[in-house]
Every structure is written in C-alpha cells, then in structure tokens.
C-alpha cells in the first residue's frame, strides 16, 4: 500500500512537471514570436536611421560613396544586419560589406520587389530576393524619398540570416530549460521535504494508534507549534490520547473499586453463613449474624442498583423524549416526604424555602427525583443530630436554583474537587457512612451533566451547601391584560421566616 508521503510527493511532482510543461509550451510560442519581432523591429529601425542620415548628408555635406559605405558598415557592425542600397530602379549601388567585398554591387533586385515598394512604401518578408541571397533571410526594405517631391530616389534593404535568429532563439531556449530544470529540481526537493514533514506526524499517529489498540495509552505524538490543520490534528490527537488514558484509568479504578466493594460484603456473608451452617456460631447468636448478613445483602443490592443506574446513564445519556415541563415545588415536597422517618430519628428540622407560585422547569422528572433524593439522603446522613436541613428554591436569569444545605462536619478543601468522582469516599464519610458505596453524588453529577446543567458545593464552618440548576419552562404566550388601576394592585407580602415557605422565589439568605 502506497503511503500518503509517496502519494503527496507524486502528486506534487506531477503538478510541477505539468505546470512547467505548460509554461514551456507557452514560452516557445510567445518567445519565438517575440525574438522574431525584436529582430524585425531592429531591422526597421536600422533602415529608418540610414534613410534619415543619408538624406541629411545629401542636403548638408554632400553624399560620397565612401561616406555612404562607412555609414552602412558602421550600422551593420552595431546591429549585426546586412544592409545595401539601390537606386530607384533596383540597382545595388552600395552595401555594408567592407570595401572591395560587396558581392551584390552592380546587381539588381527583382522588379517585383521594387514594384511592391513603390506601391506600399515598405516590405517585410522572408525571402532570398530572387536568388540574390544564397538562403532565406528576414528582409525589411523601404523607400528613400526626397523631402521636396516625396518621390523615391532609392531603396534600403536590411536583412538578417534566419539561422542568426534561430541561433539566438536556441540559446534562449537552452537557458530557459536549464533554469527550468534547476527550479524543477529545487521544487521536487522542497516537495520531498514538505511531504516528509507532513507525513511524519501522521506516521507517529499511526504507530500511536497501534499501541492504543494494544492497551498502551501513554504514547503521545510531537505537537507542531504552527497554527495549520496538521498542528490542530496533532493537538486533538494528544487530547484524545489524554481522554483515553483517563478513561482507561477510570475503568481500572472502577473495576478495582467494584471488586473491593463486592469483596467485603460477600466475604462477610459467606463467612457468617458458613459459621451458621457448620455450627461455629452459637444458636443464640445466629439472629445477630443473620441480621448482619441481611444488612450486607441490602448493601450489595444498593451497589448493584446504583451501578445499573450508572450504566444506563453512561450508555443512554439524557433521554430527550422523557423531558417535559413539571412543577419543581411539587417534586421537592413529594421527595421530602420519603425522609420523614429518618429525620425524626435524628431530630432534624426540615426547612423549606419555596416560592408561593408554581415554578415549572423542563427536565426528566424521574432523573431529577433521583438527584434530589441522593442530595437529601446525603444531607440527612451527614447532618448533626438536632440540626436543620434546608431546601431552597429560587429563579434567576432563566434558571431555577435548588439548594440543599445541612449542618455537620466541614468537608476538607482537598476533598471538594473529588466529591463527585466515582466511588470517592473520604475518611470522614467512611467513618460516618459504612453502608454507602460512593456512587450517589457521581450519579447526581452525571444526570445534571446529561441535562447540560451545573452543580456546585461549598463547605465552610460546618455548613455544607449543594446548589444545582435547572432550565425554567417557557411560559405560554397569553393575551395582554388591561393594566390595573393603582388602587387595584396587590401590596407586596412580607417575606416569611425560615421554616416556612418563602415568597417570590428569591435566593435564600445565608445561614
């Protein structure tokens, strides 16, 4: 299987080659035309300069054959073109060759060319001038006229060999292809380096993914310090690796904790049951040990129930189909009734601070009942005897806030960040609650997270306060009622004291 490194390099190489091929083809057509046009423009310029200077010499100083030859020879040496002049009948009277070497002197240009010059005034063709030249040449010719009459007195022929132009063009082509090959080589080397640099983190991620498949989540890939997509990918990959490592660690801890939580009661049950069966435990003490077995069995039942709830939460999340609007006041009161017996045993005063009006929220009522039950169970369990447990409800900014507050031992600051972790039990809670399994608050946090809600806990001076939020239900639109007259408006009622239902759904006062 070809690697992405090879594919990327091959694609880049093909793209560069095709690009240079297209540029080369365009350059050949455009460049050749430019070279030819440049030489023709040069020949035309030579002809016009010679015509102008010749006319000037005729009128000012007198034109001699020597001066004319010097003029033509100098211009030819500078431009590299061959030049000759004819009279008005086409007879060659002077040329740019050195003295005594003018092969065309005394010869005549074909009459057809002279006729064309008489009609058009100039001539620009590729020709051998009727055999005058031994090969095809680029020729530019124009008439020399007298300013007074405008009649042609002779003709100037400027020519250059095609091989000269093509030689210049060939040299230009070779330079172009040499530069092209150098640039192409550099482009391919750069593509090779860039492709390798792009492929390295992908190769590292592939190797890391293979190690993940074998259960090793400690490997990380090098993060690029740039801001491109590859840097974002490596960063996201490492974040995923961190998440997988945490999940694996939590899974291992979960298995270890479950094993520990199951081992203790099962060992107790098995030991006491064997003791009763083999007669080690006296008959008169069997009821005592049977009660312990029953307690441990109930503890196992609670653990299994919590684990099933937890598994359902983690696999299904928040079931949006079960969300509906309901009265939070009613749900709080209904949940609180299930704690009457336990609060009486500890002499706890259950204080409600609820708004007089209904407060509707949107959530899964069964899940929120579980949240309230777990928080109240926690508050009653750890409240000092003879103190109060306060449940408050108020609304603010489109949210309903529920507070469950008790007075007991202060939770250490180091334990607060861990209080919602799975199977977390502080030394304080282990001594006060031997039957707990450490999943109640984790379930609370999981349910509220599934609802996209928040929960916070504070513990100072023996007062522990859990506060969570729920989204208020949207009120149905009603037709606007006519404004009441001032004397018809109700006067605000005074706020009730703690222990009674609080008015207006305002935040509770601090204890």
Automatic annotation (TrEMBL):
Keywords: ATP-binding, Cell membrane, Kinase, Membrane, Nucleotide-binding, Phosphoprotein, Transferase, Transmembrane, Transmembrane helix, Two-component regulatory system. PROSITE patterns: HAMP (PS50885), HIS_KIN (PS50109). Residues 257-474 form the Histidine kinase domain. It catalyses: ATP + protein L-histidine = ADP + protein N-phospho-L-histidine. Its EC number is 2.7.13.3. Residues 475-511 are annotated as: Disordered. Residues 196-249 form the HAMP domain. Residues 500-511 have a biased composition (Low complexity). InterPro entries: HAMP_dom, HATPase_C_sf, HATPase_dom, His_kinase_dom, HisK_dim/P_dom, HisK_dim/P_sf, HssS/ArlS-like. It is a multi-pass membrane protein. Residues 475-499 have a biased composition (Basic and acidic residues). Pfam families: HAMP, HATPase_c, HisKA. One of its GO terms (cellular component) is plasma membrane. The keyword ATP-binding applies. The keyword Nucleotide-binding applies. The chain crosses the membrane at residues 12-36, 138-157, 169-194. It is found in: Cell membrane. It comes from the Bacteria. This is histidine kinase.
């Amino acid at each position: 299987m070809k690697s992405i490194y090879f594919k990327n390099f091959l694609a880049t190489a093909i793209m560069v080659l095709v690009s240079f091929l297209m540029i080369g083809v365009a350059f050949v057509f455009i460049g050749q035309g430019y070279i030819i046009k440049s030489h023709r423009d040069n020949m035309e310029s030579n002809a016009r300069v010679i015509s102008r200077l010749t006319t000037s010499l005729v009128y000012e100083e007198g034109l001699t054959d020597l001066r004319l030859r010097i003029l033509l020879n100098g211009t030819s040496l500078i431009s590299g073109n061959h030049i000759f002049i004819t009279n008005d009948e086409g007879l060659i009277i002077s040329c740019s060759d050195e003295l005594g070497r003018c092969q065309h002197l005394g010869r005549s240009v074909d009459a057809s060319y002279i006729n064309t010059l008489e009609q058009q005034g100039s001539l620009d063709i590729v020709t051998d001038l009727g055999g005058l030249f031994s090969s095809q040449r680029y020729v530019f010719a124009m008439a020399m006229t007298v300013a007074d009459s405008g009649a042609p007195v002779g003709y100037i022929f400027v020519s250059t060999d095609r091989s000269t132009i093509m030689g210049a063009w060939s040299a230009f082509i070779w330079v172009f292809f040499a530069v092209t090959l150098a640039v192409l080589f550099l482009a391919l080397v750069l593509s090779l380096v860039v492709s390798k640099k792009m492929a390295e983190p992908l190769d590292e991620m592939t190797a890391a993914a293979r190690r993940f498949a074998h259960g090793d989540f400690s490997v990380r890939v090098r993060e690029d310090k740039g801001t491109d997509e590859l840097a974002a990918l490596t960063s996201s990959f490492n974040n995923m690796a961190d998440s997988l490592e945490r999940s694996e660690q939590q899974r291992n801890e979960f298995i270890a904790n479950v094993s520990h939580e199951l081992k203790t009661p099962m060992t107790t049950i098995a030991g006491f049951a064997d003791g009763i069966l083999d007669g080690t435990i006296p008959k008169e003490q069997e009821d005592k040990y049977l009660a312990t077995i029953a307690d441990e069995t109930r503890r196992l039942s609670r653990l299994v129930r919590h684990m099933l709830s937890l598994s359902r939460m983690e696999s299904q999340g928040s079931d949006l189909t079960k969300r509906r609007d309901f009265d939070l006041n009613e749900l709080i009161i209904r949940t609180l009734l299930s704690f009457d017996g336990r609060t009486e045993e500890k002499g706890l005063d259950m204080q409600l601070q609820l708004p007089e009006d209904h407060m509707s929220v949107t959530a899964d009522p069964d899940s929120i009942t579980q949240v309230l039950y777990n928080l109240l169970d926690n508050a009653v369990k750890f409240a000092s005897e003879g103190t109060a447990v306060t449940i408050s409800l108020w609304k603010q900014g489109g949210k309903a806030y529920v507070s469950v507050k008790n007075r007991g031992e202060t939770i250490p600051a180091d334990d607060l960040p861990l209080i919602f972790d799975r199977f977390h039990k502080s030394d304080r809670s282990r001594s006060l609650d031997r039957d707990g399994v450490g999943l109640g608050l984790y379930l609370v946090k999981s349910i509220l997270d599934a609802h996209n809600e928040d929960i916070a806990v504070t513990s100072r001076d023996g007062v522990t306060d859990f506060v969570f939020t729920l989204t208020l239900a949207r009120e149905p639109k009603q037709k606007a009622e006519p404004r009441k007259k001032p004397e018809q408006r109700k006067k605000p009622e005074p706020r009730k004291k703690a222990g009674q239902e609080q008015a207006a759904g305002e935040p509770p006062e601090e204890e």
